[in-house]
Design a protein that fits this description.
With 385 residues, the chain is an alpha/beta fold. The protein contains twelve helices and 14 strands. Helix 3 runs parallel beside helix 4 and helix 4 packs across helix 5.
Length: 385
């Protein structure tokens, strides 16, 4: 039995399917390999077993003469399989695993390749969750959120399908789709679908709500109609924009880690300039994201103030929206500078220590403590009535 759910973003249907990806009914599929181009026993091995060793050879040929890095995408034909293309996402470093940024770049790269080649339908596995053991919940958040955002901005794909081989993975991706604010119908069986391999037929009783829908079709735990509507009724995540000088890129990474729990809880959706694809109109992308943000975070330092784009363009635009009551602007003072002689003095800056005094991030003895305090103060902001 194959279980399937779908929802629409613009003209694109996004589907969550309990099925093997080699059986997908799409024009292209996504494979997951590491930067050493090793084909293991998971998704990549399944493609070789079903489509032949020429797939592995084609990948080596596609990589010839170029530096392959995590986040890149190699495109080959599909060997003996029925697809037009296989997009081989370099979704991890063989030595150190993967992270959200790599998975996001892989996803955006595959979607861009599909549009470039006139592909109308593409299937993804749960990238990074196999040998690299990236948490399923976090992978679902990265993949679904990235696809939803990209398809909302860039039409051209008819279908994007997430193929999950295990019931628990299906339930996790389903729940993430619901958290995006999309009400899904209960899963219904699709006739003539291939049966799952015996070792993948897991016990579906992950929660005590398993049963039959009103129509008699099977429901997975965690995809109950009442659960779906309850979660769909939750407030949408607050859109957060981060303005920073690239000299402070390490502080931006610390910020991302510090608010990770807020992101997992669906309280915020953090936009980062790392999401801009090569060749995109970067200025327009940045300013569009800034104009949509409910919260603008500024990582303030001498380099931030010295940056014409950060200080005179992004900050000026953010302050104009703040004056109009359209957004909240939060300065995080990461390094000592004369910010208090600028328009930033109008705003409540953080982080503050236990005595209520503002202290720059670099002046804390323990950066973990500094950024935990940032996270605590941001949580107060996003959860206030």
């Amino acid at each position: 039995m194959k279980l399937v759910d779908s929802f629409s973003v613009g003209s694109t249907s996004i589907e969550v399917v309990l099925s093997d990806i080699v059986e997908a009914d799409t024009e292209a599929v996504v494979n997951s390999i590491c930067d050493q181009l090793h084909f293991g026993d998971g998704v990549s091995g399944a493609f070789v077993r079903a489509g032949g060793a020429e797939i592995e050879r084609a990948v080596a040929e596609a990589a010839r003469g170029r530096e392959v890095r995590p986040g890149d995408v190699l495109v080959t034909d599909a060997g003996a399989l029925q697809f037009r293309y296989i997009f081989h996402a370099i979704s991890s470093r063989c030595e150190s695993g993967t992270d959200e940024e790599i998975l996001r770049r892989c996803t955006l790269g595959c979607l861009a390749e599909a549009r470039r080649r006139g592909v109308e339908s593409i299937a993804f596995p749960a990238l990074g969750t196999g040998d690299m053991a990236f948490p399923m919940e976090e992978a679902a958040a990265v993949l679904i959120d990235t696809v939803v955002r990209d398809c909302a901005e860039n039409p051209g794909l008819d279908r994007v399908v997430f193929c999950l081989r295990r019931a628990d993975a299906f339930a996790t991706f389903f729940r993430r789709a619901v958290r995006r604010g999309v009400a899904l119908e209960a899963p219904a069986p699709v006739p003539a679908a291939p049966e799952l391999e015996p070792d993948l037929a897991l016990d579906l009783s992950l929660e005590p709500t398993r049963g039959l829908s009103d129509s008699g079709s099977e429901r997975l735990p965690g995809t109950d109609r009442e659960d779906a509507h309850r979660e769909a009724g939750a407030p949408a995540p607050r859109r957060v924009f981060v303005s920073y000088a690239h000299e402070d890129a390490e502080h931006e990474k610390w910020l991302w880690k510090s608010v990770r729990v807020l992101h997992i809880q669906g309280l915020i959706e953090l936009w980062r300039d790392r999401e801009i694809l090569p060749g995109a109109r970067w200025r327009e992308k940045i300013l569009d994201a800034l104009d949509e943000a409910e919260i603008v975070i500024c990582l303030v330092s001498m380099d931030f103030i010295a940056s014409e784009f950060c200080f005179s363009t992004e900050l000026e635009r953010a302050l104009a929206r703040w004056e109009a009551g359209e957004t909240t602007v939060v300065p995080i003072i990461v390094r000592p500078c004369e910010w208090y002689y600028t328009d930033l003095k109008k705003l409540q800056a953080i982080p503050k220590d236990e005595d209520g005094n503002l202290r720059e991030i670099t002046q804390w003895d323990d950066p973990d403590l500094a950024w935990s305090e940032v996270a605590r103060q941001l949580r107060q902001l996003v959860t206030k009535a």
